[in-house]
Structure prediction request, 1231 residues.
Amino acid sequence: MSGTVQVLIIRTAGTNCDRETQSAFELAGARVAVRHVNELTGARRVFDDVQIIALPGGFTYGDDIAAGKILANELRMRLQEPLRRFLERNGLIIGICNGFQALVKMGMLPGNADWTQEVTLAGNDSGLFEARWVYLRRFPGARCVWTRGIENLLYLPVAHGEGKFIARNPQCIQRLAGAGQLVLRYCTRAGEVTGYPGNPNGSQEHVAGICDETGRVFGLMPHPERFVLTTQHPHWTRLNGRRPADGLAVFQAGVQYVRQS
Amino acid sequence: MIWRVEVQYKKKIIDPEGAGILKGIHDLGIRDVCAVRMAQVYLFEGELAEADVARICDVLLCDPVIQEYRFGSLADAKFRQSAGRGIHGVEIAYNPGVMDPWEESTSKGIRDLGIKGLSSVKTGKLFLIAGEVSEKQLTTIAEKLLFNKIIQHRVRIEDLERTLNAHKEIGYQFKKITAEILGKTPDELTALSKQWQLSLSRDEMVVIQQHFAAQGRNPTDCELETIAQTWSEHCMHKTMRGTIDFTDTTKKSRKPQRIVNLLKSTIMAATEELNKPWCVSVFRDNAGIVRFDSAQHICFKVETHNHPSALDPYGGAGTGIGGVIRDILGVGLGAKPILNTDVFCFGPPDTPAAALPAGTLHPKRIMKGVVAGVRDYGNRMGIPTANGAVIFDTRYIGNPLVFCGTVGIMPKSASFGKASAGEYVVVIGGRTGRDGIHGATFSSLELSHESETVSNGAVQIGNAITEKKVLDVLLQARDKGYFSAVTDCGAGGLSSAVGEMGAAAGVRVDLEKVPLKYRGLSYTEIWISEAQERMVLAVPPKKLKALLELLARENVDAAVIGRFTETKRLQLFMQGECVGDIDMHFLHKGVPAVVRRAVWKPPRIRPVRRKEPAALTKALCAVLGDLNVCSKEGIIRQYDHEVQGMSVLKPLAGARNDGPQDAAVLRPRPDSARGIAVACGINSRFGEIDPYWMAAAVIEEALRQIVCVGGLLSRTAILDNFSWGNTARPECLGELVRACFGCYDAAVAFDVPFISGKDSLNNEYAAGGRTISIPPTLLISALSVVENVEAVVSADAKRAGNLIYVAGKTYDEMGGSAYFVVQGWRDPALPRVRFAQSRKTLEQVSAAVRAGVVSSCHDCSEGGLAVALAEMAFAGDLGMEVDARKIPQQLSGPARRDDVLLFSESNSRFVLEVAPEKCTELRRWLRGVPHACIGRVAGQDFVVSGMDQKPVVRADIQTLRQAWQQPLRW
Prediction:
């Protein structure tokens, strides 16, 4: 495969984080196109020259009914076939915040044959929108290609009102854990499990991100695209010269995976 | 046929909204309610089969993991509210004619499912309240917590169908209406103005009568309304721009000073004299524009939305932020919004319900509603809300203040627009409804307990997603050159927007072409409706097709409603018949000048100052917990302050991300280290003592914050927002004049121009025969350029062993200080600004900060040095040892007290943290500025030794942090 990795960012009414997601992918070395969903539905072979699809954060269609729901419905009803073909071609998908909510509600995550919804992202336990920074730890055995090579804790911001991960039943969580589909969990600075506000929404098993069976479709509530420059860190002025940019590693891992496969 | 669907959480799942309401019910003192759950209600009208509805529920409306649903035909008597035994159902829906924001998105979802035959969607909320409650208590719960009667109502199922059909029955048969004013006496004219809610004065009505008498005809209703909107205080600022005879009772000469155009002779005069080449567009467009770098400009506008927020806190604040965002979209050829600010003034949240004047909402409800309104609108727009302030005073109970600001960025070439004859008038975005009729004229009146009934239509409902779509396409259309002028529909609706755009040349509008939300609007209602999320463009004929295609591609409604002309007249048509034909010159320049009287008489304040407490630790905790000083984290965390990924200095930072910062810093372009800093100053406690010194102090406060983070003082622009009482009272107007004088003197002294501003007058609340006026309140917002964001300095202490310096002198200026408020003491001597020394201090501290000499820098304002030092300490998770004897001061006699040293709010002071090896360098930068090393960063305790060398404050930083964080943590 050639060196160029083409990313397609899908936007629609209420997509807010398309520009910064584009910047993050560009910093990771990819080429990026941002397209309105209306340009994709009805068009043929829309994903043929694309290796990565990104659904960015925002409040698509106002998050009316439930966060990400109307976009999920639209993608499922109007782009299901091209998306399935894209996945068969080993394409990568990342859904961040509202994008994650959409992937879950269209049943693409955790994913099964007929895309039946098995998990959800419900209203935060606090009843409020929460904008704060959280530590994240990779679940042991997570098979997600987007977190490959990331061994340290990640420090990233969340900004959502509906991020509480709930599975249909306990067996579902066990199955996902066994299959390496639970990817990131909220934790303390020391990597230990934690309650509010370290777990900002009350997620079961402190889950912050999951992937599908292949590890190529990834969704997470935190915003890696908001920490690709050191000056985005909430107290970078006291880092004594260290220059972290934790979020960039996620985009690099995705782009790297495409390059190598 | 009408289908009704109810979706609610499964029994085992937490219902966060229900839980929040339960807490609210307990706060009301109703203890016997044990649980509240909420069901989302949908009503679908149209030709839908049962299987269709089931599918809509399964796939679209219900989350199968956590929710369940039931549905049935509304006509089915068995299918009623789903309340069980011991459970009371209270259902809330929007009033007829009020936009239901979910209608459009739910319809889209159903269309995507391929289901046809739906004709309308309505939504509601059914609250299921379990417990022993009386019908009376249910009514209280519903009115206090569940709905606002201005926009919503409690549904009675048996009336549902009738309510649904309510506005369908309102047909509209076009009929031209004229206002019979010829031959009327001035008294009759005044009565007419009142009856039509025009807010036009007697003199103004007479001038209008003369104008139309000369043409030998009566005006149409639409013409009269247009003039009223255009001449309203809200749109024309007649007081600030009028003539004033000002008497200063402190001066020997009692001869009044005549001021022609207060705004022009003070605030705008300062800008003109300073004549900065980097000021691109000031006081002429929807926002002030200044240069950012060689290719881009930045712009800033701050608006008030006080009266709507008093009546409907959630909707009022939401449309406030929505409106100021449109100002940025409508400046020049449109700018991209990159930051929102919000500043609120509320009544104390712990006010007992019995102490509230009739007709007011509880301050806590107003505060929660306003914060939620800004949160939901700002977050949905994808614009970070990263700077603001909240202050409290009992006089804001009936008349809270809501200031919303937006900063934008634009290419240089987009700075100016101009509509030309022959171009189309195109309205895009939201559809026009009966919402917000008379907003502009209503805001020019005082509020009273009757406001909620008379001003029903004045409240608008926003829908952020409609505006976000407009934002997305507008910037694309701008970059493609599809339009040559743009403005937003704000107060006055189309009448103001189109009237302004066509002011120079003339314009013709065909009102039946305006897209409507529902039938039944008269031509006048169409013309003056303040329905939200609408922009007006001037489009060259050649570009029209391409523009309409772009809008259609992104599902944005648009319509060509008229054309710009060369007639110098505003011409309105309805179905081909002329319903308005006004001379543009009369409309924009015809308002009669009035001379108002203003008197400045300083309030008599008898000093009260008791013996200094032996220890000041308790006092420090009390001042940290003063509502104006304490942490606003509970609000800040509800705002997405990092969306767009530009933030460099967030509103809270420090070792635990919870320490206060002085100004927000953004980096608009990831590939450049150039940034902007945004700050604000507000202090109504000074305002009630002397508005002149308040103005000087809040300007300096905003500038100090810019200096602290490393913004360039020489590239700082400021904005004024006055919220005042009724300026028909000469004393009240005198206070305004005094504040404007302060603005002029400070701006000139600091060499900092004003670029935009707004005044909101008549902020009073009348009930029970008493009128309560707000204290004089001036918000100053500052916008500056940061050359290198990597050199930005934050306010949190960085390292044990570093030294603490204070720059600037402390005076005995305790009037209006948080410490005196906490102690219940009073003093007329408020902080002054010694302009020459102050400018020197600001400039030299700024140079030191930008040279990278200091590790942290914090502004010293409310709560004085003690608060500034404590904040730096706990923000850095580090203790401090301070020797009060070393603080540079000018105290004499009985004023030589530790509490004065620590809590005086004298201006022009900074606290600086510096590494020992950089001390000499810092002292070099501060040459000529009073300064001293007063202590060092050490341990985990905050210790201040007083003038007698014994510790007067000793507390661990966790205690201080707690005192600061506790008050508004709910």
Remarks:
- Chain B has a mean pLDDT of 92.
- Residues 793-970 of chain B form a domain with the Phosphoribosyl-aminoimidazole Synthetase; Chain A, domain 2 fold (CATH 3.90.650.10).
